[in-house]
Design brief:
The structure holds 2 protein chains of 2 kinds. Chain A is mainly alpha-helical. Helix content of chain A is 75%, strand content 2%. The radius of gyration of chain A is 26 Å and the shape is globular. Chain B contains 15 helices and 16 strands. Chain B has a 6-stranded mixed sheet, with helices on both faces. A 4-stranded antiparallel sheet of chain B has the order 2-1-4-5, with helices on one face. In chain B, strands 11-13-12 form a 3-stranded antiparallel sheet. Chain B is of the alpha/beta class. Classes of the chains: A mainly alpha, B alpha/beta.
């Protein structure tokens, strides 16, 4: 048969199958859209120019395209950053000592902090072009996505099972081969999960990253975030509604075209054996696996990777002098430790000088009290949210039919920017003359409470069914059932969710303690509003002070509260 | 040994220690000499924790040594060598790679081209009896099939030496025996490229069936205690008189003075346990089960250990600690591979629950210095309760952290069973049983 085919020109014989044809319009559309968005990103632009934006809903698809593209770029950079960070931190002990604490700090810096420091630099990088501002926005999104991905990859790389590591060494895998054959596949499920989380984080801060109002700048890049910001300025409820719809479409598209196929594809990297739940599927992945051309493209990529293995292979084995381990150099590692300590001390000294000279200790005390106010809010609201979502999560988690569908809903809710709720809160607070210090607080956990729900659902659905039968058989009911069975069973996943929710709430305080609707501004006293206030005016000293204090609070809470709870959960309460 | 070929791996006076919690060094291996020669299969036997796995990993180049020499064909071995391949206990297959990709792993790492890789992998796969499964993922295969993939992956690189780390212990008995016989068949027919095989095992029959030479390890610190050459021709028949008597002999060697944490020459002389000595990893239910089995028909208080293993359906590494434990507690005696029920043991088996408990408690206090020390400290304490940490720290000074925790867990289980003391898991504290607490002590109620 192959012989007969030779009579026809190659283009006719290898024209692909019907699945190629079905997928062709999709691929073309994606390419065209990327081109269109990319052209918009690199238009000429001078500082002070007004970028024409309108609240016309017909413009929204284009804005959505721009936002989507920005997020995709930021996600790509986050991924590359994660690779570099995790490899460095997992391979070199010396790098690990610096990088891991650094990531802890970076994680607790709010997005506006990064933006206010970098925006002028990025604009100066591409004079006369919009791309500089785009870069600043992409960087801001990157900072809301990268850290948890990097951390997840690093942790996975540290926990690769020992026997697999030994096998990799016995069979002479080089570092490059080990990364692609062992470490990355092993880390894949966790990394993907964190990518989805990151995406939600990116959407949550979409307004802050696109409508850049820091350091005296006021630039609105075309995008959904700017659209929302404009709608808020114009008190246009209808436009808010359109924005919500647009966001929903954006999130669903990301889910269908990116994450769902990835999750279905990454199912083979699951390490645990014998999962009973059905494997995730994706129509797009199934389609493209049936095509000839796109499948061939994937094959070509795999081959390229495999041929790179030939280039980066071990040149010698364990009998060569080059494999001889260098005797541990105590002096060098002590010198490195000393250098780190000196650096930290120097930073503290600089900080002291800065505070002493620039803002004064009275201001520090004031900011510290504001931090306490925000902390009180975080703690109380997480507690309240737990009271609501733990029972709900357990209820859903014990019903697998419901929990499957609700995961997607929860993911959308986590992505929902707090800004979209501004009108509701402002109108209610102004109308009833409520105290903003109390009534603005719910906004803080608005986006983050879903992580609690997420994790509790996951925890409850992983309770071994034998345990459930046993508790039913023993006739455990009412409070006793919760106290002895359900609460301890979901405790570890609850702690995981609470850690995420608490960290997110601190970050969210900058958009939820400083709320505007048209020209009405309502402010709650707290660290978030302090930072938001001074980023708008570009007072670097006070921004820096606010960020420092927030870092101290977030890291303190992680260290003294969450890490301990986590340890208890790990030691005592697992199956 | 002289009749075998030239040396492949030589180990001279090797010492390996690990750093304990308090920063001091604890030896795992001490003064180990060993030579693996061309044309032989060598089995390493020993209790868990005797360092036989560590020795295997040193030979694989996975672990460095603190002192002594490791050489592969005259060259120093600093890391994993191309000519040394390994089969792992839990298979260590990459679950995201197909059978063929797993087998090709070592070839791919060496930069061998796609066609040659596929050709060689196919040969190895069909050699080991996996033809037709090239495209399967490991999770689709049974345990025995997975280990076949592991063996094919190790053989495809044409290694000089094959190291097998308890390769059959994760498989059920039947599957394990079949795989073992298949490998022996390859070995005797010259189907393997490999010149020498080293097997770490806890299964005495497996060792006798496979090896030309058996090395029996002693623990604390690990070293070679006995060597035994086996000259039986292959294929060996498991039920033949020669094999049975060899198995008996190995059992006798393995149990000789085991509990006494044998210092050299300890032989069969009972010797008092030290405070921080390892306790055999034996749980109460198994001890009771074994005692009852020993007392009943057909043994009537006297049994051959291999027969007992067969009857109890315990593997050797499960049976030996239990036998050691009841020997330690004076309920039975281990003598040259046999187990004899003592008078005390007879009373224990015949007694009801209360009698058993009392007897057990008494024997634990008498024979396990650590238990006696815990009890003594508790009686002195006004609270009648103590945290576990001081005892754990004491053990950690002499054992590695995981082993220290295991020993403490064992002593707590034994103490609980004998009502010597009780333990609160959440508080991590040890206390006297409630009804035994001194009533004069006012604050004797402890949560």
């Amino acid at each position: 048969m192959a012989f007969e085919k030779n009579f026809f020109p190659r283009q006719v014989v290898e024209a692909g199958n019907r699945w190629d044809w079905a997928l062709l319009p999709l691929v073309l559309a994606a390419l065209a859209l990327a081109g269109l968005g990319g052209a918009g990103m690199t238009k000429p632009y001078h500082l002070g120019d007004a970028i024409p934006l309108s609240l016309d809903p017909f413009q929204l698809p284009y804005y959505l395209l721009r936002t989507t593209l920005r997020m995709l770029l930021a996600l790509t950079f986050s991924l590359l950053f994660s690779f570099a960070f995790a490899t460095a931190a997992a391979r070199w002990r010396a790098a690990e000592k610096v990088l891991v604490p650094l990531l802890d700090i970076l994680q607790s810096i709010p997005i506006l902090g990064f933006l206010s420091i970098t925006v002028t630099g990025f604009i100066a990088l591409f004079p006369g072009n919009l791309f500089g501002v785009e870069c600043a926005a992409i960087f801001a999104i990157f900072t809301s996505q990268a850290w948890n991905m990097a951390f997840s990859l690093y942790q996975s790389m540290r926990t690769v099972p020992n026997e697999l590591q030994e096998a990799a060494r016995v069979f002479q895998l080089s570092a490059w081969q080990r990364f692609w054959r062992l470490e990355l596949p092993f880390a894949m499920p966790g990394l993907l999960w964190n990518m989805m989380m990151s995406m939600s984080g990116g959407w949550f801060f979409v307004v802050a990253s696109e409508a850049i109002a820091v350091s005296g700048q006021n630039i609105k890049l075309p995008g959904v975030g700017s659209y929302i910001a404009m709608a808020i300025e114009a008190r246009n409820l209808q436009a808010i509604g359109w924005a919500i719809l647009g966001m929903l479409i954006g999130i669903v598209m990301y889910d269908q075209f990116l994450f769902r196929p990835l999750v279905a594809w990454a199912d083979k990297f699951r390490f645990e054996e014998g999962g009973q739940e059905a494997a995730p599927t994706s129509w797009l992945l199934t389609w493209s696996r049936r095509t000839e051309r796109i499948a061939a493209l994937g094959e070509r990529f795999t081959r390229a990777l495999e041929s790179s293995f030939t280039w980066f292979r071990m040149s010698h084995d364990g009998t060569s002098i080059r494999a001889r381990p260098a005797p541990p150099n105590g002096t060098l590692s002590r010198a490195w430790d000393a250098l780190i300590a000196a650096g930290a001390l120097y930073a503290v000294w600089e900080l002291y000088n800065f505070v002493h000279a620039e803002v004064g200790f009275g201001e520090v005390w004031h900011v510290f009290l504001l931090g306490c106010a925000t902390m009180l809010r975080v703690v109380v609201l997480i507690a309240l949210a737990s009271l609501v979502w733990v029972p709900v999560g357990v209820w859903i988690g014990l019903r697998p039919a419901v929990s499957g569908r609700l995961q997607a809903v929860a993911q959308f809710l986590a992505a929902f920017p707090a800004n979209l709720m501004f009108p509701v809160f402002v109108v209610l607070i102004v109308h009833w003359h409520l105290n903003p210090d109390i009534w603005l607080s719910p906004l803080m956990v608005f986006g983050t409470q879903w992580y609690l729900l997420f994790n509790v659902i996951a925890g409850a659905s992983s309770i071994p069914s034998e345990l459930r039968f046993a508790s039913g058989n023993l006739g455990l009911t009412g409070w006793l059932r919760w106290k002895r069975f359900l609460l301890p069973a979901v405790f570890p996943s609850f702690v995981t969710g609470a850690i995420t929710a608490s960290g997110g709430s601190w970050n969210a305080s900058i958009v939820s303690e400083f709320v505007t609707w048209g020209n009405t501004t309502i402010e709650a006293r707290g660290l978030g509003s302090y930072i938001a206030h001074y980023t708008a005016s570009g007072d670097f000293r006070r921004i820096a002070l606010g960020i420092c204090v927030m870092c101290v609070f977030v890291m303190g809470m992680n260290h003294f509260v969450w890490r301990r709870l986590y340890r208890i959960a790990e030691e005592r309460m697992h199956f | 040994m002289e009749k075998h070929g030239s040396p492949i791996i030589q180990i001279n006076d090797v010492r390996k220690s690990f750093r304990a919690a308090d920063g001091r060094e604890r030896p795992v291996l001490e003064g180990v000499d060993f030579t693996l020669r061309e044309g032989e299969i060598v089995a390493l036997l020993g209790q868990s924790g005797s360092g036989k796995s560590t020795l295997l990993r040193i030979m694989a180049g996975l672990i460095g040594v603190d002192a002594g020499n490791v050489q592969y064909r005259g060259q120093p071995l600093y890391g994993p060598a191309r000519a040394i391949s390994m089969v792992f206990q839990s298979f260590a297959l990459f679950p995201w790679l197909t059978v063929q990709q797993n087998v090709e792993l070592g070839l791919e790492a060496r930069g061998i081209g796609r066609e040659e890789r596929a050709e060689r992998a196919e040969k190895a796969i069909s050699l080991i009896g996996l033809a037709g499964f090239e495209g399967a993922l490991p999770r689709e295969l049974s345990g025995g099939m997975r280990q076949r993939v592991g063996i094919a992956r190790a053989l495809v690189t044409q290694p000089d030496v094959l190291l097998m780390d308890e390769a059959f212990s994760a498989l059920d008995v039947l599957t394990g025996e079949r795989l073992r016989d298949d490998i022996l068949e390859l070995w005797t027919q010259g189907g393997m490229p490999t010149k020498a095989v080293l097997v770490v095992s806890h299964n005495i029959e497996e060792a006798v069936m496979m090896a030309d030479r058996i090395l029996i390890f002693a623990s604390d610190p690990g070293r070679v205690r006995f060597q035994l050459a086996i000259d039986l021709p292959r294929p060996r028949v498991a039920d033949s008189a020669e094999v049975r008597s060899l198995i008996d002999e190995v059992y006798a060697l393995m149990t000789a003075g085991t509990v006494r944490a044998g210092r050299p020459g300890a032989a069969e002389e009972p010797e008092a346990l030290r405070l921080y000595d390892r306790l055999p990893d034996a749980d109460i239910a198994r001890m009771e089960g074994l005692l009852e089995l020993l007392a009943g028909a057909p043994f009537h208080g006297e049994a051959d250990l291999p027969k007992l293993a067969e009857e109890s359906e315990l593997t050797d590494d499960e049976l030996l600690p239990v036998a050691s434990a009841i020997d330690l507690l004076g309920l039975a005696r281990v003598q040259s591979g046999d187990l004899h029920l003592t008078l005390l043991g007879r009373r224990y088996v015949d007694g009801d629950h209360a009698v058993r408990q009392e007897l057990f408690g008494q024997q634990v206090l008498e024979n396990v210095p650590l238990a006696a020390h815990i009890r003594h400290s508790l009686e002195q304490d006004p609270e009648r309760a103590l945290p576990e940490q001081p005892f754990l720290r004491l053990l950690q000074q002499h054992l590695d952290p995981a082993e220290a925790e295991r020993v403490l867990k064992t002593v707590i289980e034994w103490g609980r069973h004998g009502e010597v003391f009780e333990y609160d898991f959440h508080a991590g504290s040890i206390h006297l049983p409630d009804d035994q607490q001194d009533e004069a002590a006012r604050n004797s109620i402890i949560e």
